[in-house]
Specification:
Elements: H1 2-12, H2 17-26, H3 35-51, H4 57-66, H5 71-86, H6 91-122, E1 125-127, E2 130-132, H7 135-153, H8 167-183, H9 194-200, E3 208-213, H10 219-233, E4 238-242, H11 247-258, H12 272-277, H13 282-297, E5 304-308, H14 315-326, E6 333-337, H15 351-368, E7 377-382, H16 385-394, H17 406-411, E8 414-423, E9 427-437, E10 446-451, E11 456-459, H18 460-463, H19 474-479
Parallel strand pairs: 3-7, 3-8, 4-5, 4-6, 6-7
Antiparallel strand pairs: 1-2, 8-9, 9-10, 10-11
Helix pairs in contact: 1-2, 1-5, 1-6, 4-5, 6-7, 7-14, 10-11
Amino acid sequence: MSDHAQTILSAIIPDRRDLLDRALQSLSDQHFLDPVYRNIFRFLDRYAAVTGSVLSRQALVDQLEKGNIDSGKVLHYSETYDLLASIDSSEADFRWALSELREQVASSATEHAIKQAATILTKGVEFDGQDLKGQSDARSFLMTQFADIDKELSLQDSPEGDVRQEVNEILDDYSERKRINRLGVGEGVDFGIPPLDAKLGGLQRGEMCLVIGASGAGKTSCVSQLGWHAATQQGKNVVIVTTETLRDQVRRKMVARHSKLSKFGLEHGLNTRDTKSGTLSETEEIRLKEVVEDLGRNPSHGVLYIWQVPRGATVSMMENQMYRLQRQFNIDLVIADYLALFRAERKRNSTREELSDILKSGKQFCTTFNDGIGVPLVSPWQVSRAAQLEAERVGYYTLASLAETAEATNSSDVVMSMLAQDTTDRYGTTKGQILKNRDGERSDPAPLLVDYATSCFTDAAVIGSPSSGSFGVEDKFGSALDSGW
């Protein structure tokens, strides 16, 4: 490791502040096992923070003498600095050494974590104020440690710069957004629910959106609609992270939603219940093949990736998986169904504190992902029974409905509510409302018709109100979904 540390430091010295900044973004002083190299890295960091330049040999000597370091050590550090300055390390050498040093430190950390987990399994240890013992604690500890190691390996650059020097960039950015707007494509990610999209203006990178409501209100159907619409109608690359639903179930939802397109000639689409039980009619079985072929092979569609997370997963584990997938394709949207079922990184005194930590981690992920470019993150969020009863009484939710988890309001950029009004076995009505929209308009409750069998939402104001006991408008409900609506 000392060879890699030497290459990194020699590339920085005597005057490569840009490489020092890159090293500071990816390394800590603990990556340098040699104490002399570690201290030189610390001095480089502190000196740059104060002066804005790279530490010179004389400045190093001055710092050491101010610290009353004996002359022998001052001489040793001076000679080490001279050695580093004499080595000709290119920027390519620096990049390679940076990667290798991080990998080697991660390898050592992995080995140490495995040994600790073995001790927890057989003897038990005290760690971070907790007594850990047995196979369950050992597995949980190991998963957390591996997530932390992966997170260190995945550290990425964050955008920065002087706005005064970015005039052309700002104007170019606006011109591109104007061009996209004229094409009617939209840069943001739409739900495919017109009355809500009209106010929302598309989810933007770095935004965290919570879809709140009670059980059965259509939260999961809403995010399923979002994932399908983004991938098939906007060509976005979507990752669905599922915690409470099997991957096969989510896949069936996507197929069922796709089957509602008018080109397949299925008035009511393919019911997920029938695809699950194998009870489709002969005609529907033929259509199923057509639907699946189009969903999987249509070149205009984006990626629709479904990841079923393991039990006890944390937001860090999700983040690391997203980094891996980002190397395969550019991720435009992440749907986590749902965040509250993730495990907090650290044990807290109450569930409320742990949920707050999870929300903060989710927000940090969607903001910093992909070198600070960010990605929209959407998740359903369950409200309390008291909040549900109050919403049913007044006819709508408010941000006060999230009072039990205030961080849900603080961290999120968009809060959308779903208030169920009328449900049968398959069809129902719900009120969709935008309660918070950091960069846009909020909305009044919009009546929506929901086909739970296909996760399809339709504007009730366009189609009409359902009759008592059933929609009574199923013909219109099917035909209103032309062009991927």
